[in-house]
Amino acid sequence: SARTAASGGLHDCLLEALHMDSADALIPWIYDPARTWADVAALAPVVCKCAEAGDQDALGAVRTTAAELALYVRAAANRAGFESAFDVALCGGLVESQLVRHHLDECLAYECPNARTAEPSVEAATGAAMYAARLL
After folding, report:
1. Are the C-beta atoms of 49 and 39 separated by less than 8 Å?
2. What is the mean pLDDT of residues 72-95?
3. Is 66 in contact with 112 (CB distance < 8 Å)?
4. Which pLDDT belongs to residue 7?
5. What span, in angstroms and rounded, lies between the C-alpha atoms of 89 and 61?
6. Which is more confident, 79 or 122?
7. Alpha-carbon distance 41 to 39, whole Å?
8. Which of left, alpha, beta for 38 (phi over 0: left; psi -120 to 50: alpha)?
9. Structural domain boundaries of the chain?
């Protein structure tokens, strides 16, 4: 039977997602030179599912991720000279989790109070092209 976030916790869910029988295989997997950030990022939905089911390790990872994202927003806002309220467009699989968004909103309120999360008004590639056109 499949392991679930409720029954096996983050450890078991990660092993199942990676088709592994033992945690001993995790270290070689993560340090494999062929491993990409995308491979690791693909595990985010597993972590989010476990966090939503109440797994404390997964919830800690979600909180840490939200705090790190808020620090990136603060750094970018400082560098760009944003002083008034501004929107932070959320895109990608990680921020599709309501739990991640909730913690990100909390962290932004503390780290960068002028920032507010928003849905993107255009696709990322379109936004990048529009920004590049302004630079010309």
Report:
1. no
2. 89
3. no
4. 54
5. 22
6. 79
7. 6
8. alpha
9. 5-135
